[in-house]
Amino acid sequence: MEFSGRAAGVGDAGAIWGVIAAAEVGWHGRAEVVPDRVAADLRRPLIDLALDTLVLEAPGGELVGWAWNHGGKRAQVDVHPAYRGLGLGSRLLDWAEARSREVGSDWIAQTVDDADKAGTELLQGRGYDVLAVNWLLERPLRSQPCEAPAGIRLEAYDSARAEEAHEVVEGAFAEFGSRRKSFEEWAELTVARASFRPDASTLAYDGDEVVGVVIALDGDEGYVEQLAVATDHRNRGIARAMLDRTAAEFHRLGRGNLTLWTHSGTGALAMYEHLGLRVRRSTTVHRLWL
């Protein structure tokens, strides 16, 4: 069977999401990827769809796999479970690595679900090592009080404070080695998404200063896309209070669980477990030095 390749377009987002969702259903019994995530990725300001994406189609035109490369450092490869074992993953990975070399990157990283044994073996066989581990955490939602620490005020997200929220988030994430995103890129991946819930998102204020941010997305479950507290306001219980407020809002909306991702580079797993979240599943970031 011959599979044709071409660059992705924003109009392919639904079909690409279907490929990712089918894989998650096979591994975990349910799709957990937020439906508008792929569209947000394809609209990233720094991505050139003609150069940085590749989709594979079966003879009938069905989209069966895809890959993208962001800045030469980060890649993602997904193949529909019905088309595994045909060499499509290797073909997409060859393309992703070649693209990284083309832009002059010295390494490339890809995140693989820990339930994807074949994908993990493929990367290990090509010399990838482990860079980090990510955990999807969950907490059942119930009615509970939400109390802010002394001197802190909690309110729903306010678009007028978007640039301040961006500064808090990017400043906090940069401490753990993350690339600082421009406001435009950050907004495209968070507050500009269709799934963004400003009412469930939370800003923490000390006086009139934004010192904490929770960005929440809606779906079958309540999802925290980002949680950050300004460096000089940590260890005051702000993260707990913001998470409790967001959880209360999702409970009001009828969601059963609150979920979020964290990774080993932040050292935040113990904090989240202390806040009542538990690990549902994990992924591993694999890196290849080029």
Automatic annotation (TrEMBL):
Listed InterPro entries:
Acyl_CoA_acyltransferase (IPR016181), Bact_Acetyltransf (IPR050832), GNAT_dom (IPR000182)
List the PROSITE patterns: GNAT (PS51186)
* Keyword terms: Acyltransferase, Transferase
Q: Where is the N-acetyltransferase domain?
A: 14-142, 152-290
Superkingdom of source: Bacteria
A Pfam family recorded for this sequence: Acetyltransf_1
Q: Which CDD domains match?
A: NAT_SF
Q: What is this protein called?
A: N-acetyltransferase domain-containing protein
